[in-house]
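S.,

Sequence below, as promised.
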Amino acid sequence: MNQKSRTLQGPLKCWDIYSMHLAQQAINFDKEKEIEILKTYQAKFDWFFDVEDLLTNNKFEALVLTDLEQEIQWVNKGFTKITGYSFKYAKGKKPNFLQGENTSPETLNNIRNYLKRGVHFKESIVNYRKNGEMYHCSIEVYPLKDSNDITTHLLALEKEVRL
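The prediction came back faster than expected:
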């Protein structure tokens, strides 16, 4: 075999495998940090649910924690990545700042009804990024109840739906 026909693929393949491992480690680190943050809130507000189970067994990109008035208390890095808005900007606002011209009034009405009833629900909504770009978002909202079965907060697991 001459020198020109030989290709060296070993190091590149090894790096590809290792980089996939590093990317997965970063995802796991972020998820562990999110679990830790939510466990701190859980201890403070005496929520009766398994944070680790919820975040480990559900697929999401963004997390949004609100109080009962729907004011944002915390968002994860995924929220910033999807929307372009920082935690500092979002904190204290209601998630409706993400809505716009193509957000369905029917969807908003459905969400209001679910929230009034205090139930877990899934819905799809059109939101807008900081740069004005529209995106489709699947949300799953969990009412967070304390040991007295009183809802104190809402946690939304969100993921962008690419059409």
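The mean pLDDT is 87.

Coffee later?
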